Amino acid sequence: MNDCFETLALPVNFRVHELLAFHARDREALAEQVAADTLRKGLWRQGRPVCLQIDFLPGRARVRWDAEGLPAQDVLPLVQRMLGLTQDIGRFEAQWAAHPLLGPVLQRQSGLRVPLAGTPFEALAWAIMGQQISVAAAVSLRRRLILAADLRHPGGLYCHPQADAVLALGLESLRAAGLSQGKAQSLLAVAEAVRAGRLPLDAWAAAPQLSVEQIRTALLAIKGIGPWTVNYTLLRGFGWLDGSLHGDVAVRRGIERLLQEDVDMARAEAWLAPFAPWRALVAAHLWAMQALNA
Fold it and tell me: HhH-GPD domain spans which residues (predicted)?
């Protein structure tokens, strides 16, 4: 097998921990393998499995992938999005450094970026499966979906199924994998919309100017897709940092920790509002804050 290698420069304050933790959610490591300074991830690209390996070295990331599976002009932008390198976090941190409650959090967590899924479809599938259940339950569903699709790289890593593979599974197999009737139907609906060209997710991700309202409108037109699913998909699939994730239980718990009082969805939405256009990045800091204090 012929492999390609490229190197990406990393910011001085790049935080590897949160990125690796995001990809280590499934302890069975079917589609992602995480070591101290390495991420290996299976990707289904151009009709074939690809093994992507990212080694984190001082000040740089060494990227390795199967040469025949993914051209260089595609892999580096993909990795940059996955690592959050396109996110202008410096401006956000400078603007809110003096905030009495969030400022100390930003100081402790300076450099935090939002890790992205391998593809927008993977992020959307996770958002659908994660609706109104715990992270552990969502991880289990994701694992069973990956096993049902059975797309494996010769090196052993599984690949998260994309739209065509989900459609090939069909409703019965998705239900057998543990998805509820509603979630299975929603996942099939978005997969069909991708195949029909109504949801050109990869093209949107590669566009120089992200059309958030176009994506939002297209997703909300699908039964079973609501604001939380849209905002989470925009965050983890496209790196859009202004979705208000006030419907996320962990976000509300983080706000409660800062305010030292109970917070409902309406209060969380109002508290997050002044941080636009960075509300989803604030949510990421709240998630990280709780993970560090767990």
Answer: 129-291
